[in-house]
């Protein structure tokens, strides 16, 4: 799946993948347009959103 490929690439480049979001994360990878709770929290916590 696309998510599995992204998870693999993130780890291959030395990053960490997490299925949840906390204010300690550095980025959110998202394709949604702001309707999810993760997207809203990332915006609230000033976490950069990459799509």
UniProtKB/TrEMBL annotation:
Gene3D superfamilies, A to Z: BRCT domain (3.40.50.10190)
Listed name of the protein: BRCT domain-containing protein
InterPro entries, per database record: BRCT_dom (IPR001357), BRCT_dom_sf (IPR036420)
Residue ranges annotated for the BRCT domain, each copy included: 1-51
Entries under Pfam families matching the protein: PTCB-BRCT
Lineage: Eukaryota, Metazoa, Spiralia, Gnathifera, Rotifera
Organism: Rotaria magnacalcarata
């Amino acid at each position: 799946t696309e998510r599995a490929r992204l998870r693999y690439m993130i780890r291959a480049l030395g990053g960490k993948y997490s299925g949840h979001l906390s204010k300690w994360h550095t980025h959110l990878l998202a394709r949604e347009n702001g309707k999810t709770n993760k997207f809203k929290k990332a915006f609230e916590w000033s976490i950069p959103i990459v799509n």
